[in-house]
Structure formats: C-alpha cells, structure tokens
Design the sequence.
C-alpha cells in the first residue's frame, strides 16, 4: 500500500456517523478511557495529526479519523452473524485431521466445502477424536461437534476409529462424509471408512459443484469427473474456508456403544529419527552449506544445534566436504523444505531450481550481489562463521531458557 | 530376523511417466517389488491384473524376477474380485502394493478393499519390515517429513508403500527380456465406475488468491491496488553477527523450526 | 667345436618352445568369442601397419621412436641372421659382418633403453621390464662375440671353453627372453602379440590414415549372444589378443583424466587386468601404478569368472569402469593401438543390461531416456520451447532443406539455449535453408550407449532414423559434438547414413563462402578447448580455429590441445555416474586454461560448457564458438551475391 495519505470521503462519513455498523472500526487509537479512580482520562497526543506545516491539528470533521492511514480496520473484531440450524434436514460429516489438536488449513477448507454442501438446511458435524485445543470451531463452520474420547482411540488406532465412524454413520446417516485426502491420517481413515461402508469414494477431489465432483486421477495427468458420491476425500484448497458466519458448535453425543475389536495393529510409538538421516526431499528444515563455508565442523555443530537436516551445494560435494546424497539442486535432490538456510551458497541456477519449492529461504553470504540473496526472504551479509557462531549461541541459550521454563 | 520361507506377493500395475505419460513400471509398485525382493529374494511372487502382452510389465521383470503372473482382463475390468479370489488361496503372509495407481482412477482404494474383503489388517505407508516372528511382524510406517512410527501387526497382512519405501532397483534389459509373463485366464468383471464418470486432461489448479472479504469500497480498492506480496526479501547488511543471528533466530521461531 | 653344436641347439630349442608357446597363447585368445577378421590380408598388411601407422604414433616420442627402431630393427635382423649363421651354420663372412652390424645396432638401441630405465618415469612398469634392457644387451653382446670368429676377426676357438660356456649362458639368457619369453608371457610378448594384433585389429579402418571411433553395435535380435562382457571370454578373441599386445609404456596412464583426478582408473592397469583375466591369476605381479586408492594384489580372475563382482572383489571393481569419460586419450596415445574404450563400454554393457547396476544417477537418466526421450525427464512436448520466439522452420513443414539443424538435448538446458539461439542467428544471417525436427527429434542416444544401455540407444537411434527418413536434406549440422559423433559414426550400423557437420565446421564453410558479414572480436585473449568428441573422435581440430581466426581471435593454445586435449570430464556419462576422486577433472582443465592467461575460453560442446562453467569463480569466461560468432555479426547483409537458395539435390535418406 502506498504511503501517501489519501482522503477517503466515505470512510470519513462512516467515522462521523455513529450509527454506521463500521463506525467503531473507523476510530483511531483510543483517545479517552475511564481511569482507575473513575476519572475519564484523555490522551491528547493521540488526538489530532501533524498538518502540512508541521503544526498539530485537531479536526473534528471526521476527515482525520477517516483519512488517516493508521486506521485499524482489521483489528476491529466484527461479530459475525450466527448461523443456526435447529432441525437439520441432513448432516454433512467431516472428520478433520486435527494435527496437534487444531484444525489445519486443509481441515478448514474441508469445513468450507462441507458448509457449501450443507446449504441452509443441513448441519455440518465435525467428528473429533480425543482432546483438542481448537478454539475456533465456530468460525470454521462447525454446527455440531461430536467428540469421541477414550483410550482406544488414542495414538494410531485407525481400525478402532473406523468402528466409531460406523457408529456415527448408523446414528446420523450423513448425506456426505468428507475427509481430507492427506498423508497425516485423513487419506487413510477415509479409505478405511469407504471400504467398511462399501462406498466408492471420490478421491483427491478439488472441486465439488452442482452434484459433480472433480478429482485428480492416476498420477495427476488426468481429472476424473463424476457425480459426487457419499464419501469424498478432498484435496487441499478444495473450497474456500468459512469466513463470514459463526456456527453453534453444539455438542452431539453418540447414543450407541462403539464396537470394540481386537487390535490387529499395535502402535509401538514414534521412532526417533535423526534429522541428518531424513531424506533430503522430505526434510522440513535444511541447513545447506556451499563454497563459502570454511569451517565444516562448525557447520555440523550448527545443524545439530538447530535440529536441521544438512544439505550442500554441488561445489561443497565436489570438494568432498559433504556426501553426494546431500547435494541440493537440479542435479542433486529437489527439496521441499519449509525453511531452507543457505550458508555461503551463491546460488547457481541449478541450485535455485532445486529449492524452488521451499517456503522461506534464509541466506548467509559475504557477497550482497549473489543470486541467492535475490531469492532469499531474509539475507544476512557477513562472515558466515561469525554469524553461525552467534546463531548457535542464541539457539543454545533459547533451548536452555526453554528447559528452565519447563522445569 | 526374517524367516526363510516368507511367502510374499507384490501387486503391480502399469504406470505412466508424469511428464510424458508413457507407460512404464509404476514408481510405488516398483518400490513394493523392491521391498519384496529384499524380504523374500527369488521367492517373491509378482501379480498383475491386466493385459499380459503389455511391454511395460517387462520393466518389473527387469528387476530380476524370473516370472510375473498376469490375471488376464481387459482394461475396463475390475481387478478387485480377481485379486481377491487369487489371494484367498495363495497362502501369502504379506501382500505389498503401491499407494495408488498412476493410470485410471488411482483412488488408492484397492489395498483397503482387499484388506476388508480378505479380513486382513492393512498397514499404510510401509517403510521397512524390521522383523517377523510368532505370526507377528514389526514394521516401520512412514509419516510425513521423514518421521517413522513402529507398528506390530498380525500376519497375514496387506501393506501399501509410498515414496518413503526404498527406491526401486534399476530395471535391466537382459532379465526383462528373459522373464516370463504367465497369463492366467480368469472370469472378467466389469468396472461400474466408468458408467457415470469420465476422464479429462488435468486442469492446472490456480494458486489460491488471497481473497479479501471487503465490507467496504475502500477495502476493495485497497485489496485491488495492494502490491503483490513478496519481491525482494529483507537484506541485513553491515550488521553485527549477533544482530544477524537474532534476525534469523526470530524467523526460525516464527516458522516453528526450533523445537 | 662346442659352440657350434651348442648354439644351434639353444637357438632351435628356444624357437621350438616359442612356437609351442605361440600355439598356447593363440588358443588362449581363441577362448574369446568369434570375430570376423581378414586372416591373410591382415597378415600381409601387417608390416605396413607396423612401419607406417604405428610408427606415426611412436614418432610422437622421438627418443623412444629412435631407440625402438635401433633395438627392434637390430634384433629382428640379428635374430634372422643368427638363425642362418649359427642355427644352420652358414658361416659366410658377409653374413657374419651383417650379423655383427645388427648386433651393434641392437646394442646401441638397448643402451638407450637401459638409459631410460635408470630413472624411469612413473608411468612405466617396473618388475620384469627392468630386466629387459639387460637381456637385450646380453643377446647383442653374446651374439656379437660368438659371431666374431665367423667374420674372421677372431680365430676359431678363441677364448677356449671358458668363453664358450660364458657365451652359451649369454645366448641362452638372450634367446630365452627374446624368443621363448616372447610367447610365454615375458616382456617381449608385446612383439609377438602386437604384430598379430596389428594384423587382426578389430578396427582395421584405423590403418592407412583412416578413423574408426564409433562403438560397435550389439546384435539384440540374437537372443543367445551375451549382452556385453561379463567374463574375459565374452570379449571377442581379437580383443583379447589386443590386450596381450600391451607394452606397459603407460602413455595412456599419463593422459588419462580420471587417473589424474585420482579416480580408481588406470587404463594400463585395466588392460593388464584383462590379460590376467585371459590367462587366469591375480594382479599381484603387476609392476606399474595401481588404480588410485586401490592396493595391488587383492584382485584376481580367470577366463570363465565374472570380471566384476558387485558384492565383493573380482578382477576389476565396477567403479573403475564407471570412472572413464570415454575421452579416447588413451586410445589416441597407445602405440599398440589397443582399444580401451571399447573394452570399457563392453563391460559397462553387461553391468547395465544384465545387472541393472548403473551407478548413482545412471538408472534415473536411463529411465528418463526411455520414458521422455531426454535424460532430464522433461516433458517431451517442451523440446522446442527455447525457440518459441524464433519462428524456426520445421522439417514437417518444409520436407526438403539443405541443412537439418540437429538441436540436441541442450534444448532443455538454459545455458545451452544461449548457444542454440546464437547459432540460429548465424544461420539466419547467412540465409541458410535450414529446418529443425522439432518434437520429432529425440536424444541421439549418446549417453545411453556410453552408460552401456545399448537397448535404449538402439531404440532412440531407430526412432530418430525413422523420423529423418521422411525428409530430404543434404547435411545435418549440430552444436553438440556428441550427437554429431553418434549421428555420423554410429547410426550407420543401424541404417542411418548422413553427412554430418559440427557447427564449427559449418560456420567455417559459411565464412569461406563469404556468406557471413563478420566484425572483429573485441575483448581479451582467448584460448580454445578441443572437445574430445570433435577432436579425437572426429579429427576436427582446424575448423574451430579457422572460425576463431576469421573473427580476429588469435588462440592462445594450451599445452594440452589438439589431439592431446584434456577432457572436461563431461563425456561417457561420467557426470552421471559420478565416481569420486581426489579432484575434479574440470578443475584440472581450468588450471590448463588459466595457465595460458586467457580471459575467455572458446568451446564447441554443451557438455564442456557445463563442466567448465561448473568451476568455481573467479575463472575465465566460457563461450561457445557460435556465441562468439553471433556477437560479431554485422547487421548489413553480406555484400556477396544474393544467396540463391540452392535447390538441394534430392538425397534419399534411410
């Protein structure tokens, strides 16, 4: 947004008009409030603005509030209208992944799709296993919340969860089942449910409209168009998440007991994986070293301190500092890390190609003109050894601080 | 760790290369064959439902298989009943498959349906079989981002592998040419899906735009004229190493990389 | 007289044993697979091949050439005369003097051999080879003294039995090394096997100034033929014979880029290992430089045992075979004209086609070639994207043109696209009637073939030949020496015969015909790097230099240029198989370049460009010849007469 302050007559009008629903949002920072002793306090510094001649002006015409660039529109919490479904004509059941106990963005897209399918008569029921930490079920579009708790459902228990979902099926008979087609549980659970219910699901669905759904087929070179089945496994961004309504999140209970089966698959727990051994293509956080790294011992220390997977440029591999399977780039591994930290890598075109899918790139380099800096979201120009040393120190301090807090 | 007389069957399909679409061995199925070969060696059985004359099947033979059994059926057939009846009597302890086919529907349902019909447990994302003893297998399951979970599962079971399983060995021309494709005549069951569904070339999905729910004209204007996010990143020049490290640290914390 | 009876016995005994040894050796070679040779014609051509073709190679080392002429010439003469004089007792004075002369000649030669052995360079094998000059001297001296009475210089019976015994011992030593040792595996084996190798060489075209560098095709229709070489006996018998001809001079070792880079390859050791395989045994007796990083004495083999054991040690490790860049420097230097590259590719064929053991990215590249017709796995439909704005004429539209521009897989590489665009600019400036195959073009198959995947090579080649057979053109021009070589020399066996030119040759033709209006190159000094597949493989050293000269560049030659040019490390799939060494080949080449002080290096190959540009800066700039020419193109059309698009003579292409 440009820095030029423009007059916005409409905004000014709203700022003057106390009856306008957005009136509050148009007011700038608080200028007066009730003090601790019951006396109204005013902050004269907030009122007014510096005029073109450098003099402070107080203008009560509304232009000041309405025209100021510092308007706090977004921060105003607008109470969204509540969407109430008293007697649902039908249910749309959604089983969100709930990674870390919260709705993921994929889950929210899915709830958006569910609301689209529910229209104004149906109710969206979210089936959640175990404890959750989510506080925004209402704005995400959950009309009914069905929590299934119990030891049986904890950890990795897909077979038991499917039994629970079958119980939901017999109680609510939802018109559609929606699950995220994800690797974090939804894809598997959905297919297990499909096999159990004998429904042929539509998978990797990215569009549902007018009773038709379109999903990716095969290796992704074709789309399959079919009438929307009962069970839909939807891809990321299958629909816009709910954004302009609030929902009741009314609790629903399962009436029947869930059948118990003898677990045929026993979860022995997560296996500690050394970040250094994670395949490069899958690693989430990569610390990559190149020609500019002079102290490789320190580089390895930094990777250990940060908990990052190590990568390298072609030159570093050629020079024998790193093994070949750590090479990042078009001729090495194409990586998909969320954060890619390039130390002393100038950024050959093949290397930049290989990190094309990375979210955030951090560069540490001596040369401010190199291509990696152009690609990076954050660059620090300077001696990599000194910066890494400072970073190791900072992270170690943070870790120790964290340990103290936990204690 | 592994008993000698493991009876393992790997199910394979015809794949398609992601850029050219040319028929090939399917990536994940080949990984399933690889895993099978590592577990059972020469005794691995490989099974395909389809056309026994398909040259792409030879790419599996090229991995060192002496033969590959093909349940003969036309391309519109439903492989499930054929595989089900075959596996029922095959006496396998472990059936390996890929996660989804590279051609056709590719819903990835086949292992789930087979497991349901056979009444066997199913392991998704098998990365490694650690040991098999007393009718139980201890396996590692692949989770996203290189994480692993250890599971204990009762034999016999079905497992599908994804890209976390070991990379398939190279398919060599000599064994591919020598290997035998054993065709089995079976009753054909048509797939009902294609009655109401049709395929179309994949439409590229546009990147989701930042939709701004504008309540007012001003906001709409703001949204429309807003500079695209991105462009050059932040560059810290002439700062002390500590200041630089602090900036990096902040970003790492924001991204949740420091755990 | 004792000597008169003893000498014939010694001579004929040694000769007899030599003949038996020869028979045994011959049967050993014949364990290999059959090969078609011209038995008699080869033998008849042998002296000329030896005295002319081989001499050209040896002559590069003047010292050794003169030494060898004296020693070998003296020996052959002396041996022949000794058999007449001492064997058959023809005691003629003239023959005596002739024999004395021959002995002196041989003695002088042997002295120089001995001199070089005083402080031998690392490339020479030691062991029995250190004995050879002594044996040669002993032979010459013994026969000299033994012949003095024949020539009448000394009286008969001079020196009494003492001298006679000494001479007998000397002659016995001499003839056992030089006659009997020749066929029983001594250093002199090279003379016997070498002569026959020249007679029945697998590439007889190389003699008489010819050139034969294309790999030979496997017959894939013959299901019984082995796919490549697994065991020594899977080589053709004349290949085995060729290995036996090795003199262990180490010229190959001295020029091998992989050896210099510390990769586990030494061409001389490889050939000697093949000899071990052919006869059976271990490499413990090898007395030269080992494969870098590998100890001697741990490998062994036999004719019927696999050469490579992927899970342990056999005769040769797979890494050795995959280190080769197929630059042909060893073959070019070899005074015995041994074909190292053929042998290496034969063994690679087995590893790829039978074992599926192409290392590192090899398997992926081959899969990509099968599925997408290019090694990078790019969507085949994007092959012409680089030229989206150039409005290139397509063969499918024009049907008949003068020049078919073979683009190559560089079409997918952003760096190489600059070269391609530059060359198109030149073609357009010269009003050349050209077209490209566009999406009908596929990888030439070079990489697949050199990685040992003959099946994929033949598939690609046949499909390319089929595409081209639909159209008429006079010649093919390519910016990629690898495609150029394969199209020119390796498609013939599969039915594709074309006139193929490298773009530097074609630009040279255009410049000579005054079709280009060129300015002068501005900027610093320039050196030129000869691509292996253009130079050594196809003998084109002049045209690129002529083109550079035409745009005002005086090439600062590197010490290793022309036929001695050092490889960039990019050939033979070496960057794909990526066998680690102590240093990188392109880095070494860049040192060569920097030694000239040039600011820019002109190249004519996308592989060389990629490899050299991969060297860490600061380093000289790298530019393709086409880019240099395009840079100095003057806008105004050439003043030459308006180029009439000459109607190409219809050339049937199959």
Sequence:
């Amino acid at each position: 947004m440009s820095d030029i302050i423009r007059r916005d007559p409409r905004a000014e009008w709203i700022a003057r008009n106390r009856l306008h629903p957005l009136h509050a949002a148009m007011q700038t920072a608080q200028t007066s409030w009730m003090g601790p002793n019951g006396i109204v306090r005013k902050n004269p510094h907030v009122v007014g603005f510096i005029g073109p001649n450098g003099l402070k002006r107080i203008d009560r015409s509304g232009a000041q509030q309405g025209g100021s660039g510092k308007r706090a529109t977004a921060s105003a919490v607008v109470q969204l209208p509540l969407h109430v479904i008293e007697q649902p004509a039908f249910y749309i059941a959604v089983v969100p992944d709930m990674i870390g106990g919260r709705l993921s963005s994929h889950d929210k897209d899915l709830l958006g799709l569910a609301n689209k399918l529910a229209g104004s008569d149906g109710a969206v029921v979210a089936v959640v296993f175990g404890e959750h930490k989510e506080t925004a079920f209402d704005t995400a579009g959950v009309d009914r919340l069905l929590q299934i708790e119990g030891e049986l459902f904890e950890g990795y228990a897909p077979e038991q969860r499917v039994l629970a979902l079958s119980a939901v099926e017999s109680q609510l008979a939802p018109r559609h089942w929606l699950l995220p087609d994800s690797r974090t549980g939804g894809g598997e659970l959905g297919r297990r449910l499909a096999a159990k219910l004998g429904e042929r699901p539509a998978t990797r669905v990215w569009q549902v409209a007018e009773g038709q759904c379109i999903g990716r087929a095969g290796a992704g070179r074709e789309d399959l168009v079919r009438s929307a089945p009962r069970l839909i496994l939807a891809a990321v961004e299958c629909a816009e998440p709910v954004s302009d309504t609030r929902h009741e999140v009314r609790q629903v209970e399962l009436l029947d007991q869930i059948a118990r089966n003898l677990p045929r698959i026993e979860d022995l727990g997560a296996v500690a994986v050394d970040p250094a051994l994670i395949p490069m293509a899958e690693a989430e956080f990569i610390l990559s070293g190149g020609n500019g790294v002079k102290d490789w011992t320190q580089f390895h220390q930094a990777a250990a301190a940060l908990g990052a997977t190590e990568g390298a440029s072609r030159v570093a591999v050629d020079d024998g500092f790193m093994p070949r399977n750590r090479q990042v780039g078009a001729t090495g591994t194409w990586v998909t890390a969320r954060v890619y930290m390039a130390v002393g890598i100038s950024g050959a075109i093949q290397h930049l190609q290989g990190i094309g899918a990375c979210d955030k790139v951090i560069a540490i380099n001596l040369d401010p003109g190199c291509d990696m800096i152009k690609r990076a979201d954050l660059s620090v120009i300077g001696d990599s050894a000194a910066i890494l040393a400072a970073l190791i120190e900072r992270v170690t301090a943070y870790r120790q601080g964290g340990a103290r807090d936990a204690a | 760790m592994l008993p000698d007389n493991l009876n393992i069957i790997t199910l394979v399909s015809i794949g398609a290369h992601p850029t050219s679409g040319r028929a090939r061995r399917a990536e994940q199925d080949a990984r399933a064959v690889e895993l099978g070969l590592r577990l059972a060696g020469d005794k691995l059985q490989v099974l395909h439902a389809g056309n026994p004359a398909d040259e792409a099947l030879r790419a599996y033979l090229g991995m060192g298989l002496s033969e590959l059994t093909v349940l003969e059926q036309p391309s519109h057939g439903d492989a499930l009943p054929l595989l089900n009846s075959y596996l029922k009597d095959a006496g396998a302890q472990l059936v390996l498959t890929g996660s989804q086919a590279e051609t056709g529907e590719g819903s990835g349902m086949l292992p789930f349906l087979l497991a349901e019909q056979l009444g066997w447990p199913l392991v998704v994302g098998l990365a490694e079989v650690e040991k098999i003893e007393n009718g139980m297998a201890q396996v590692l399951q692949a989770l996203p981002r290189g994480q692993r979970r250890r599971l204990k599962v009762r034999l016999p079971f079905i497992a599908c592998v994804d890209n976390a399983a070991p990379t398939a060995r190279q398919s060599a021309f000599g064994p591919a040419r020598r290997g035998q494709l054993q065709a089995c005549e079976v009753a054909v069951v048509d797939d009902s899906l294609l009655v109401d569904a049709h395929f179309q070339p994949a439409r590229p999905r546009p990147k989701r735009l930042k939709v701004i729910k504008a309540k007012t004209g001003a906001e709409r204007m703001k949204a429309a004229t807003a500079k695209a996010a991105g462009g050059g990143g932040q560059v810290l020049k002439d700062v002390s190493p500590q200041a630089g490290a602090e900036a990096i640290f902040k970003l790492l914390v924001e991204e949740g990389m420091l755990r | 007289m004792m000597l008169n009876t003893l000498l014939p016995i010694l001579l004929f005994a040694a000769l007899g044993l030599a003949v038996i040894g020869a028979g045994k050796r011959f049967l050993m070679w014949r364990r290999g697979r059959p090969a078609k040779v011209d038995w008699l014609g080869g033998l008849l051509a042998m002296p000329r091949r030896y005295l002319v073709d081989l001499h050209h190679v040896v002559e590069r080392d003047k010292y050794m050439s003169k030494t060898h002429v004296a020693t070998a010439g003296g020996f052959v003469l002396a041996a022949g005369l000794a058999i007449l004089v001492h064997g058959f007792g023809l005691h003629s004075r003239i023959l005596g003097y002739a024999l004395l002369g021959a002995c002196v000649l041989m003695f002088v030669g042997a002295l120089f051999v001995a001199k070089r052995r005083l402080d031998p360079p690392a490339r020479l094998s030691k062991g029995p080879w250190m004995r050879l000059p002594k044996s040669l001297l002993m032979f010459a001296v013994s026969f000299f003294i033994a012949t003095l009475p024949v020539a009448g210089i000394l009286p008969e019976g001079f020196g009494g039995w003492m001298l006679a015994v000494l001479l007998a011992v000397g002659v016995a030593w001499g003839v056992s090394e030089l006659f009997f040792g020749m066929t029983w595996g001594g250093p002199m084996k090279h003379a016997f096997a070498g002569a026959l190798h020249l007679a029945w060489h697998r590439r007889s075209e190389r003699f008489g100034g010819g050139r034969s560098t294309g790999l030979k095709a496997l017959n894939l229709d013959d299901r019984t033929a082995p796919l490549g070489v697994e065991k020594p006996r899977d080589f053709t018998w004349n290949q085995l014979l060729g290995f036996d001809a090795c003199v262990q001079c180490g010229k190959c070792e001295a020029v091998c880029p992989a050896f210099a880079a510390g990769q586990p390859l030494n061409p001389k050791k490889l050939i000697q290992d093949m000899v071990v395989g052919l006869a059976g045994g271990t490499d413990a007796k090898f007395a030269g430089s080992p494969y870098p990083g590998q100890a001697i004495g741990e490998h062994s083999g036999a004719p019927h045992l696999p050469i490579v054991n992927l899970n342990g040690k056999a005769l040769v490790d797979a890494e050795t075979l995959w280190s080769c860049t197929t630059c042909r420097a060893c073959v070019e230097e070899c005074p015995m004209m041994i074909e190292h590259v053929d042998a290496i590719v034969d063994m690679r064929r087995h590893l790829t086609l039978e074992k599926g053991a192409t290392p590192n990215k090899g398997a992926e590249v081959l899969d990509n070639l099968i599925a997408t017709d290019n090694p990078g796995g790019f969507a085949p439909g994007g092959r012409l994207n680089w030229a989206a704005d150039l409005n290139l004429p397509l063969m499918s539209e024009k049907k008949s043109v003068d020049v078919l521009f073979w683009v190559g897989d560089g079409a997918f590489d952003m760096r190489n696209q600059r070269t391609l665009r530059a060359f198109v600019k030149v073609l357009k400036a010269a009003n050349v009637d050209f077209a490209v195959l566009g999406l009908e073009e596929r990888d030439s198959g070079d990489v697949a073939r050199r990685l040992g995947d003959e099946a994929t090579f033949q598939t690609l080649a046949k499909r390319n030949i089929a595409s081209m057979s639909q159209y008429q053109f006079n010649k093919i021009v390519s910016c990629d020496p690898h495609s150029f070589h394969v199209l020119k020399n390796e498609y013939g066996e599969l039915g594709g015969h074309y006139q193929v030119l490298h773009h530097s040759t074609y630009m040279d033709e255009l410049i000579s015909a005054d079709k280009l209006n060129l300015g002068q190159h501005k900027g610093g000094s320039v050196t030129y790097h000869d691509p292996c597949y253009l130079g050594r493989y196809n003998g084109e050293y002049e045209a690129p230099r002529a083109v550079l000269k035409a745009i005002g560049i005086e090439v600062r030659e590197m010490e290793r240029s022309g036929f001695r040019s050092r490889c960039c490390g990019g050939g033979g799939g070496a960057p794909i198989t990526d066998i680690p060494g102590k240093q990188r080949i392109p880095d070494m080449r860049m040192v060569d370049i920097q030694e000239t002080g040039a600011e820019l290096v002109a190249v004519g190959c996308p592989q060389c460009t990629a490899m050299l540009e991969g060297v860490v800066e600061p380093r000289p700039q790298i530019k393709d010849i086409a880019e240099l020419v395009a840079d100095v193109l003057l806008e105004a059309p050439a003043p030459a007469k308006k180029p009439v698009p000459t109607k190409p003579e219809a050339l049937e292409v199959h």
